[in-house]
Amino acid sequence: xxxIVLVFEILVLLTPVLFLIYYKYNLVCLPRASVSxxxxxxxxxxxxxxxxxxxxxxHLYIALSILITECIVTPLIMIKxxxxxxxxxxxxxxxxxxxxxxITQIIxxxxxxxxxxxxxxxxxxx
Length: 126
Known about the structure:
By secondary structure, this protein is mainly α. The chain is 90% helix and 0% strand. Helix 2 packs antiparallel against helix 3. The longest helix is centred in the middle third of the chain and has 34 residues. The mean pLDDT is 84.
C-alpha cells in the first residue's frame, strides 16, 4: 500500500507543474489552474494519509467523496467560466488531463480501501 500512497503523492506534486507548463503554452486560462490542482489534490491526499496511517476507512471515504465531487464539478466550473465554445475548442487537453488524474486518484483510493478491508478481514479471522 505504501507504493500506492507514493504514486498518489507524486500525482499531487506533479499536477501543478504540468498545469504550469500548460499555462506557458496557453492551454489553461490562469495560473490559478496550477494552484487549484494542487489544493484539490492536497485535500484528498491529507485524508488518504490519515486513513492509511490510522487504518480508518472513514477518512478514505472522505477522500473518495472529495475526488468524485471534483470530477463532477470541474467540467461545470470550466464551462461556466469559459463558455462551451472556448471550452470545447481550446481547453479539452487541460480538462481531460485533470479528469484522468482525478480518476487515477479515485482508483488509488479504492485500492487502498480494498486492501485495508482485506487486511482487517484477515486479522479478524485469525
